[in-house]
Specification:
Number of domains: 1
Number of helices: 2
InterPro entries: AB_hydrolase_1, AB_hydrolase_fold, HAT_MetX-like
CATH superfamily: Alpha/Beta hydrolase fold, catalytic domain
CATH class: Alpha Beta
Family: Belongs to the AB hydrolase superfamily. MetX family.
CATH topology: Rossmann fold
Radius of gyration: 15 Å
GO molecular function, one term: acyltransferase activity, transferring groups other than amino-acyl groups
Protein name: AB hydrolase-1 domain-containing protein
Organism: Phaeosphaeria nodorum (strain SN15 / ATCC MYA-4574 / FGSC 10173) (Glume blotch fungus)
Helix content: 10-25%
Strand order of the largest sheet: 1-2-4-3-5-6
Strand content: 25-35%
CATH architecture: 3-Layer(aba) Sandwich
Number of strands: 6
Structural class: alpha/beta
Length: about 160
Amino acid sequence: MADDYQTYKLGNFSLSSGGEIPDAFIAYKTLGDPSLPAIIYPTWYSGSISDNLWLTGSDKTLNPEKYYIIIPALFGNGQSSSPSNMPDLRPFPNVLFYDNVRAQYELVTKHLGVKHARAVLGWSMGAGQTYQWATQYPEFMDLIAPLLWLSEDFSA
């Protein structure tokens, strides 16, 4: 069931840019028992929750028999609040890593009840989120594992 996921309603979600996503929601999937050490594994740019499943399984690095794996989807990926599923919100507001991680933190702590995570890991834009987790909530996890992240400014 790769396309199985749930959503958590965030309500009117204020953004660091000053904008807001009305009736915002974050899509997520969990694997494993909530009593196990939590691993947060966010999606990357254009990645869906099912795209993250390649690293999960009893024979994989993220083994749901050993870890409680939480896969939150980025705003804008088509599963969480996105231009494609909020057609009346034009233009779609500017969303930063800060906003995504704040939404993920609310999902993980308030909705799922996780008090501490073993790790936050991600690759590509998911890796960028690991750095944001480390700066925004440095005491929440034991470690981060950013994979394949190019932290270079291409704006010029």
